[in-house]
Design a protein that fits this description.
26% of the residues lie in helices and 20% in strands. Helix 3 crosses helix 6, helix 9 runs antiparallel to helix 10 and helix 9 packs across helix 12. It has a six-stranded mixed beta sheet with strand order 3-15-14-18-16-17, covered by helices on one side. The protein has 427 residues and is of the alpha/beta class. The protein is built from twelve helices and 18 strands.
């Protein structure tokens, strides 16, 4: 719901959708004939990869890239590896893509089960980094970071999505187990759970200290949660981890709890599917399921120039193939009819000030975007607070000229990051 003043001088109020009652169980998508899994490592056919085309794999089996790399993925099905290739994602991010032809008879790998009696951070890091919710443990091994607080977020970061709220409602016992495991393996007792007001009573049973956040978007983004919960302001160019705080989704924590309780690595992702009519349905699908299988299950017809978005309407990314798979951090999939896709233009900024009024970080967006359009990224960072942006997408949402401001900002940060890596490599 959006509310704005008649004269347009007040910030519009955009609210997250509240999940007040426990919804029905997610609609289960049948296991597809083929899944596609990504390893967070650029593929090179010269590498001594530890798996090959034709190899048989089991559900829950760890597929490590090579002996000299800690990159891996967990097989979410039982079947045969049919292809290994390179995949380029957003902003040039390179992955190794593994296609697996699915067998009808499922077998579960027992390697992880043998390790659950004595949970350790190494075990979690070596087996659960690709579990539903995409828990990451790398920060706990970084000697330059000293994490003293873990915040579990029980609200989704973008609009229209209710995935993590559902997990709070339906899997609070698994969250409780996950919180207990996290305390044990990290040695961190200060674990908080951040939820909207309507889930406060449910969250009490999580085993974490409950904090509530506002229903107004983008209060669920990490930088704003830091300010609301701890009163800390994250300086420009710094991360929450630099201040000793890291974040896990409720689904990630529930996955940790289920894995160590049951001895089986979870492989099914819960997500919110939004069709062309705006109808929202909770869905469960194996990680690696092509989006075409979900679209087919809902009898949605894709036409030329329709758009598929992974993520929410404010910060999601469009994908250009129906074969693109559900991943561990896919909380929503939106299908947009071409007639209702929000268009962007090359029309210049008219200096109306809407982006400045709505920006939660008080970035002078109208000046920033002029430098970004011209590719002057370093000047934008130095003079107009590029790194203060928390990437909520509100600037693009209100832009009268329909400029893709949010994407300009993400591209600028990517390019500056690439330059920084190149300079460090050549130093």
């Amino acid at each position: 719901m959006t509310k704005s003043s008649f004269i347009g001088l007040a910030k519009p109020l955009i609210e997250y959708q509240a999940l007040d009652v426990t919804p029905l169980e997610p609609q289960e998508i049948s296991i597809p004939k083929k899944v596609i899994l990504f390893i967070d490592r650029q593929y090179n056919h010269r590498d001594s990869i530890l798996f090959n085309i034709g190899d048989q794999v089991k559900t829950g089996q760890k597929l490590s890239y090579s002996e000299d790399s800690d990159a891996y993925v967990i097989s979410t099905v039982t079947g045969t590896i049919s292809s290994i290739s390179s995949f380029i994602g957003d902003y040039g991010k390179a992955y190794t893509a593994i296609s697996i032809d699915v067998d009808k008879n499922e077998e579960t790998d027992d390697q992880f089960k043998e390790l659950i009696e004595n949970p350790t951070l190494d075990t979690a890091s070596n087996y659960l980094s690709g579990a539903p919710g995409n828990p990451s443990f790398k920060i706990f091994f970084d000697s330059e970071k000293s994490i003293n607080t873990i915040i579990v977020f029980g609200v989704d970061r973008d609009l229209l999505i209710t995935t993590n709220q559902y997990v709070v409602k339906a899997h609070i016992n698994a969250i409780n187990s996950g919180v207990r495991i996290l305390k044990k393996i990290t040695g961190i007792d200060n674990i908080l759970i951040a939820v909207p007001q309507n889930l406060m009573q449910d969250a009490v049973a999580s085993g974490a200290e409950v904090r509530t956040i506002d229903s107004e978007y983008p209060s669920a983004l990490p930088h704003l949660m830091m300010q609301t919960i701890s009163g800390q302001v994250v300086p420009a160019g710094k991360s929450c981890e630099d201040l000793g705080v890291c974040f896990f989704s409720t689904e990630a924590v529930a996955s940790i709890g289920k894995a160590f309780n049951e001895g089986v690595i979870p492989v099914t992702k819960t997500l919110t599917f939004i069709d062309k009519n705006g109808e929202k349905t909770l869905v469960s699908a194996r990680i690696g399921t092509p989006v075409s299988e979900i679209i087919k299950a809902f009898n949605v017809t894709l036409n030329e120039q329709d758009r598929i978005v992974f993520g929410g309407p404010m910060t999601g990314s469009a994908v250009y193939s129906e074969d693109y798979p559900v991943q561990a951090d896919t909380d929503a999939i939106i299908v947009q009819d071409k007639d209702y896709v929000a268009l962007v233009s090359e029309y210049p900024c008219i200096n109306c000030g809407e982006c400045i009024r709505i920006c939660p970080a008080n970035v002078p967006v109208n000046m920033l975007v002029r430098f970004l359009e011209a590719g002057q990224y370093e000047e934008a960072a130095e003079q107009y607070d590029l790194y203060s942006c928390i990437e909520c997408g509100l600037c693009s949402f209100v832009c009268v000229s329909k400029m893709p401001v949010f994407h300009y900002i993400k591209l600028a940060k990517y390019e500056l990051g690439r330059i920084s890596i190149a300079e460090a490599t050549n130093a």
